[in-house]
Amino acid sequence: MVSFDISRSQWPAKFPFAVAIFTSAFLVFQVQPVVARYILPWFGGTANVWTVCMLFFQIGLLAGYVYAHLLVNYLGSLPNFCAWQFTIAVSFRTSHNTIIC
To answer: Who is most buried in 4, 12, 75, 77, counting CB within 10 A?
Structure first.
């Protein structure tokens, strides 16, 4: 169980993590409509395409949250680190050939 009780002495140490979380959430929700708008003409430009784009990004976000929850709650430190390294390696490998110009 996660404790949300933060004393004044712990607050400065946890502030960078809060900034990183809110910044990443902000960037995800900024990138989502930009990418959807960019690929919208490729697939016809209808409202259904926009809806599918939004659904895809929301499902991806939910999958990321589930992944983080499972790693933190059901794996120890070493398997957690190995799973994280594997995920990063796979993402670098798959994104190498799919850069959008």
So the answer is: 75
